[in-house]
# Entry
Amino acid sequence: MLQHVTLEIARDRVDACVRFWGLLGFAPMTAPPLLRARFVWVAREGTQIHLMPVDDPIVPDQGHVAVTAPDYEAALAALRDAGFALRAGSNAWDAPRTFVRCPAGHRVEVMSAP
# Structure
């Protein structure tokens, strides 16, 4: 299990990113006291996404974070309804997957199964 990933985001994208991850079932959580001023955390089932607001975030073009969606079709519908552009990924493991960009520009792979 991947415990967490840290993503740099523009300071003005924090709320939009928290809402985005919420569409994938991640809920806001409180970071430890020493980190609260520097990070915003969301979590689902033991996996955390640490959002790091910075002035000049690094957002790789091809690298990505992959998460499984408990209800794949519902997650895609929620993303679509929220205005996110979805791109079908290859079905290399006989399990559909879709790519989307979060509000900070990070590429996210939404998987129907691991």
